[in-house]
Structure formats: C-alpha cells, structure tokens
Amino acid sequence: MSMPLLSIQDLHVRYGGITALRGIHLTVHAGETVMVTGPNGAGKSTLMKTIAGLVRPRQGKVIFNGQLTSGHAPETVAASGFSLVPEGRQVFGSMTVLENLRIGTGMRRNAMAVAADLDYLLDVFPLLRERSNSQAGLLSGGQQQMLVIARALMAAPRLLAIDEPSLGLAPRVTDQVYEALLRLRAERDLTLLIVEQSASRALLTGGRMVMLREGGIVLEGDPRQISPERMQQAYFGYDTPPDAGARESAHAQNAAAPLPT
To answer: What is the pTM of this model?
Structure first.
C-alpha cells in the first residue's frame, strides 16, 4: 500500500492536568473518506485542531503529505495542503460571499486555476452563486456551512477536514451539504476527514469510521460491517464482549474520565 497522506503516531494531548487525547494512531490515504465519531468529550475537535497545528501535542507525531507537521504553525500546515473547516461556521459576516471565497485563495498563484475552481464550486453550491454579492452574515446556517466548505476548497487542499458539518442544521439541509461533499469526493477524488457526533452519518456516507471515547480510539472499521450492538457498546462505554476485536479492547482499557471536546 502507498504511503498514507496523513499519519498520526502515538498522539497525546493535554490541557493543563487534563488528558484530551491518549495514544492515537491513525492513517488516512489519498481518496479516502474517514468519519471520526463519538460522544461529547471524546476528543474529536482536539484531534482536528492538533492536526491543523492549532494545538501542540505533548507527545507523538503528525505527518502530512510526507512532512512532519506537528509543532508547526497552522499557516505551515495549511500550505502543505491541509484545510480545516472548524466547528461553528466562521464566516466573515460583513464581507460578501465572493469576498469570503477569495480569502481561501491567498496562497495560490495561478489565477486561471483559481477562476476555474471558483466557477466549479459555485456549480456545486448553486445557492452561493445566487447569493454571491450578498453579505455572508445574512446567509442561513446551511448556506454559511456551504460557504465555509467552499472557502476551504478554494485553497486547493489535498485533504479537507470538517468539524461537525451538520451542527445546528435541519436534516434536509444536512443532506444537501453531504450531497455536495459526496459529489466533490467523486469528481475531485477529494480526501475527506469529517467529525460527526452521530455514528449513523458514517453509515450513510461510506468510507471508514473511527470512534473516539474519552481520548482514545475504541472502534474502527467499515460501519456497515459493525453490528449496532458493538457500536453502542463502544459509543457508551459498555463492557466489551469477549468476541470483540483486540484493538477495541486495548483502547477501551486506556479510557479515562470524560473530557471536553
């Protein structure tokens, strides 16, 4: 198998005296979709922020696109081809939709490629084309989510990471967001790393599921091949059945008190 696009090795993160991540090992290959799920306080957002360079790990490595990126500034990580859409839809409200999108092109130099990507993304998100000259702060929650995803894609990343894209959205709007992501995955061979609290979205989206609980990985694999009982046991921290995989048992033994995300 080819070298992974993203490799996380024995990652530990602490906030003061609180351990947020403990011994995380994770690889993501180019073209893959990986859904990171788990309950509140599992460490999902901390994992995303650490990969992006926003949080410095206490121990372990993050290697992206063949380069060690842990400990580097977020700008350096972004320049390597990693784009993070953080939780909370952080748009520049007083700027127009187009102005927000152009912010994502700051590190690009090929004007023709930028123009082509802009036109393509406005086709993927037609509501943004309709509102292109409107202030971003006047968009609905769903439209703002589409905007921040498109803005991240304007940087032409190799890997797009999205933290809780469905947060605060109606189910119908969430479906529209995921339909666009799946189109991008198919047409652009985009590598996706998505955090969702609900494990059910991993079943609908496809790809690989990684479940965190209390700072460690407790379950990993194709969600279509994992029984609902086993998924619930991992999610809620029930006693692990004797026939569960060795990896699940090992990570479950490392679990500690619930931690903030």
So the answer is: 0.86
